[in-house]
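Input sequence (1162 aa), recorded before submission:
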Amino acid sequence: MRVILFTSLLLITCLSQVQAQNYIPPSPDALGMAKLASTGVNLYTGNSHVNLPITQLSGRELTASVSLSYNASGHKVQEESGSVGLGWSLNAGGTITRMVRGLPDELPDGYCGVNNRGEMANATTLSSTFRDNVAYGIWDGEPDIFFFNFMGRSGKFFLDAAGIVYTVPYQDIVIKPAICRSGRDSWEIIDENGISYFFGSSASHRETSTYKKVFPAGSPSTNFVSSWHLSRVESPNKTDYLDFSYTSSTVSFMNYYYTKVEGAGNCAPNVGTIKNESTLVTVATKYPYQITSPSGSIAFQWSSERIDFPGALRLESVILQNSSYSQISKTRFEYSYFYDPTCTKGDSECKRLRLDKVYDLSPDPIATFTYNLETNLPSKDSPNIDHWGYYNSNSVDTWLPSSFHYDLILNEENHSFSGASRQPSFPKGMANILTKIESRGGGYKLFTYEPHDAIQYPNTYIGIGGLRIKYIEYNDGINQSIVKSYHYLKKDNITTSGQVFYVPIYYAYRIAFGGTFKRFSHSLTSTFDLNGSHIGYSRVIEKIDGQGSNVHTFSNYEDSSPATIDIFGPTWGVADSYSWERGNVKKQETYNSLNRLVSRVTNNYNFTLPVKRSMKGVSTSSYSYDCNPNGGSRFSRYDIISRPFVVSSQILEQFDPLDTLKVIRIVNDFEYDPTTYQLTKTAKYNQAKPTEKFITKNKFVSSPDYYSILSNGLDCEQEQNNCYDNCNSIADPFEKSECQLGCNNGYYTCIDSQPVYSTPMESSILELKRRHQISIPIETTTIYQNGSNSKVLDANIMLLKTIPSTVPKVFLAEIWSLKEGVQESNYDYSVVNSNREFIYDYTKFSKKVTYDAYDNSTGRLLQTTSSDGVVTNYTWTPDRLNELSTSISTLGLTTRTTNYVHKSHVGPTSVIDANGTTIKYEYDVFNRLSKVKDENNHIMKQYRYHYQNETPGFRITSIKESNPGDNVIYYATDVAASAGGNPQLVWDMGDGRVVDNNSTQVSHAYAAPGTYTVKLAGLNPEYGPVTRTQQITVYPVVSGSICADGPIQLDLCGGEDTYFDHCPGNQNTYPSSPVTFTFNVTGGCPSSYTYAWKYKKVQDAYWFYSPETSNQYTLYDVLNEGTYIIECVVTDGCGKTYTGSYNIIRFKSNPQCGSGGVGIEN
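Predicted structure, token format:
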């Protein structure tokens, strides 16, 4: 039987395939990152853009930012909330995560495992043994989908049978895998800037997942790494870094999946029973704990108070700190839960975490969120879902959807099955969606949604689940509103421009043997494109009230390569994906308030560039015949293609609003490096004068003109590509895969084996190529071309130098500029000649600036010399001081020095100019400039900030339960005011005591039990008094008693002198039964009670301890004569303990009756 591995956790929106296809996702938080990698938030999908910046840590070269993003496409029924609430994703650091399809790739029978199943999937002919083993989940036929999302960059890739990375679409980045014959256990990605990103460097940076089938009991489990989190980022020179650490928790969730065998002809109808093939997935989830750099850190504080998702954490606050760990800023979060009051299946099934407010140090929230609570999501195990997993109006209590088979030969419906409705419902799909964001000061954004409408390519209309944005109202808080409306229509302004990816199919069948079927609870076909979307709009009109409109046109299914299907027989298949060709902006037009065309931007794309790499996946399903549930398998084979695409040209048009025939058209033609696809040439011209052009050329480190820097005259990447071309001519898939693996290894050997150059420019170019820092432009030129006449107007050449060390450091050495314009025919572009020397015509250039010296450890510039001989020196204080000092000395006839002192991550605190004059800068608690003072501390400028209904910031934090006589410490935290200074604090402890010494910390004990309200008043003349309150309940000290249910005095010989005790509500009078003890607590702090049980014979020294931690304990194994004491120690939420005890007796009325009697034997 085929093993089905899928989940509903954000799955359908976030990832490209459907639940039924052997797919296992990572944790909700990692999957939220995958969502951002796979689904762009744009008008093409009808999804509104919601992003909330939280904080940013800026270093010398690297920056880490933290933000929240919301996906407004609708919530899935089986979707668990991430750590910042349902629909929200925390963007902090990065991750490589994957959706397992079939088996994890690296397992022996995985796609790139040692048993070569991936090579079999790429064979010319698929054997029946291979197809059946894939169908029944024994072998793997599909590569996992990997998603990366880090530092503002995202994408997806696959690993082929040899473990070689295929980015989709192609990106010129280096990805070193952590699995599949790589010899590594962590990932490294190197971008075009040479920045290295390391993922999963240790176990604390990896999420591991375990999945097992629920039935039959005792099914084996499979373990694998599902996500590798960002561990470290290093600048190309290794002079700056970011380190990431994580905390963890363990969560579990279900992948619901059901099948049923149906028959006709030789099989009686509905002979089968519904089979539960669901899987339980357990994930060791990672959450960011700290991001550290030489300039400071970002700390994340977490809470385990999650009643909706046991084991999961929620984000409490984010703190930005300087290098001395002093707080710069703090952002905290407030939550509650979405809940359907008709749901009766418990908190973990019925509730979902809800983000309500976001605060900084002010008591007034930065943002307040409102959601649709008129419709709430049902329990997470509800079968009331549409084709895409959104909530619908299904009323049939089954996971199997209704379906029918249409016989193409007889042209009639010949098989129909009843079941659940999977039709979408807009009112249900609106459940718990975000509808409003209110900002501090009164402004807001109001969101109005509508259902999708679309056609299934090319022309079949079907109902579509999920939401798209209809209106967004922007209000500035002073009654000024702008409303934007969105219309998803073709040029006739009548027909929808939406197109859906693929039609769901819920059965596999075989015509022979009377036509037999296997039904599935989830679609066998992909209902989501590889770009993560199930729908795309070709044309969207954005109307702005009273201001005009923008019309956006996107590439869509009618523009892109067809989604072809290679299928063995009828029913279903998996399409070859050309997802990167869809959703690109083709055209954007702007109309004024009179609906007259003002401007238009047209982008033309080249989607036909050479395919870099391709591989095949095999998706299968078992079918049945003659009532045999394991009758055989269907399969579909599809291509996964790694191919680049570029914008080949762009046309900018400006129209006369009064006469649109009067237009200026500016054309930009683009050319790219054939290997790296970097933009190397832009030709800009007025279409009315096409022979007159302004051309910009960029020559990067990767330019073919510098290939001779390598010993064989070829670029290492070009060598790799040539190697792949040779491999493609090998017919045998096994040999071909091994050949490609050799190409991959050969690339790194090529780079590492190059000679060391003594001259700085040659060694620098080689070092940049070695570390893939290919975005550095060595030469830039600006050319004016008129017909055959071309003149170089301007040119710049950057000369580099390398400082040898364990990690060679490449720095900018000199910038040379063209002295005067020259005919291009007389201009010699820079090259590396056959002697591997970098040459350019320096006689035509003049030196503009020399970068004389750098700090080798930090990479900071120390000295420059300008073209007129002026030398400037820079002196920096060590990074890890609280403040940074800089002095600049200009050496000419005189020395002039300016000193700067900076507050890390805030701004300058003082400037002493060359005349010795000092200016000081002060900041408020929100790090906004508040005062500018002279050297005598006289205020020169003062800034006051105030927003509508502002109040001073402070709040009370303390424990919320206690016992009489125990000291409770109360803190005034986040004390802040944007104007008028911090408030004066007065405490009222709620029992008559008042503390008015402006203390931010008070210790107090309450004499008697009761509930007390503590008040903290903040007095400020600009605001008046503001009071915060918090309640504390003082409980009596914990105590209690133990009752027993069962034989407390028992004759082991079976005599009648047996006595029973009973707890309230119980009546156990069976001598042979065990005794159940219950601890009844009185008093104590009720937030938690834990119990520790033990027993022994009264005269014995040693106790027997029970693992039971609840208030009930059943004693089975008292077999011998004696008096036994049972004790229970209860610990309450305040940490106080109480010990209760109970004695039971076992005796023999006849010493000769034997050892067993009626007692319970071991």
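Checked by second reader. Residues 733-752 form the longest helix (20 residues).
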